[in-house]
Amino acid sequence: SINTRRNRFNTRHKLRIMAQFVTAQQVINNTFTNTNTDTNLIKTTTIEQTQIKHLKPVLTKDLYDLIVTENNASSLSAANQTIFDTYIVPSMYWFVKYDALVDAHYKSNSKGVNRSFGDFNEQGSNDELSYVMNAAFMTGIKILERMTTYIEDNSTSYSTYNSGENVLNEVSIRANIIY
């Protein structure tokens, strides 16, 4: 059956279902000025990919995998609960907004890509979209920089963390350009 083949593939490739760190409604409530924004604009896949794309390179593989496993089991250790509540979840709000804004601004459908227009508002320019996206991205980065400092200052509590693998320790980011 298709489910048997999928399970074998997932086992072979060590894929697992990941509990999302945030919901679309939490992202909207914490980062959008209009809290009536449609939650359907933020897809589950966007949230999942945001976790992998923005958090895993900073938390490093082993600590990220541990937090995912503990979160899936609803049993975060005290140390991991601290960074989860203080840094991971707040950064996820901003990174999900960053990743979702393009889809909220443009709609892809069978006719191609179109600009999105609401009933009672005027669509922002590409410069305005870039400004809002940059602000969201940099807010997320600043939170992760504070988390990195916290983890490294409390390294005995985070034995699975590898500071040499943390991309924030390897690069400089200026104007969304990675050096």
Overall description:
The structure is a single chain. The chain has helices spanning 2-12, 24-31, 44-59, 61-72, 78-105, 126-153, and strands at residues 106-109, 112-115, 173-174, 177-178. The protein has 179 residues and is mainly alpha-helical. The strands form 2 sheets. Strands 1-2 form a two-stranded antiparallel sheet. A two-stranded antiparallel sheet has the order 3-4. A hairpin with a 2-residue loop joins strand 3 (173-174) and strand 4 (177-178). Helix 3 crosses helix 4, helix 3 crosses helix 5 (78-105) and helix 5 (78-105) runs antiparallel to helix 6 (126-153). The radius of gyration is 18 Å and the shape is globular. It starts with a helix and ends with a strand.
Main attributes of the structure:
179 residues; 6 helices; 58% helix; 7% strand
Which spans have pLDDT < 50 for at least 5 consecutive residues? none
Distance between the termini: 48 Å
Shape, principal axes of CA atoms? globular
Q: In which range does the helix fraction lie?
A: 55-70%
Question: How many strands appear in the DSSP assignment?
Answer: 4
Strand order of the largest sheet: 1-2
Helix run count: 6
Overall mean pLDDT: 83
- Major sheet size, sense and barrel closure: 2 strands, antiparallel
What's the alpha carbon Rg, rounded to whole Å? 18 Å
List SSEs in N-to-C order: HHHHHEEHEE
Structural class: mainly alpha
Give the DSSP E fraction (strand runs of 2 or more residues): 5-15%
